[in-house]
Amino acid sequence: MDETKPVNSTHDINLFKKFVLYFNVMALRVALGIPSASDYQPNYRSRGFSVAMIAVSEYATAKFISPHMMYEYRLGILLFGLCFHSLIDILFGKDIITMAGNYNAYYSRYLFYIYLVFLAVGLVGGVMTLNNEIGHLPNS
After folding, report:
1. Within a domain: residue 13?
2. What is the pLDDT of residues 26-38, one digit of tens each?
3. What pLDDT, in 10s, does the model give residues 76-103?
4. Structural domains in the chain (count)
């Protein structure tokens, strides 16, 4: 008989790498669950969207935690998060796609629920920021 391996086989990833890739894997898993307009290279658009989701969520979380923080510091957090997670996505893209595709082999499902709370705070904060920045008309 032939020896077969499971379809979703895993490869060994150390604990530090799992910790560093956590936000990128979770965001990609959420982004892959959103239906896209095109099936041509779906990972390409989802990966970019996932990095943007992480950066906006970090920005909004910093804004909620410290509402009196200067705008320049919050902008620095946004740019640093965008650069940091983009670099991680570029360097470890293959691992992120593999881990997001077979999530339960690498992470606990409770960690996904914790990330969903972080993402909800980020999305609500992002919408509130856009509403406050560009949604109002000046008084005449």
Report:
1. no
2. 998 888 888 765 5
3. 988 999 999 999 999 998 899 888 888 8
4. 1
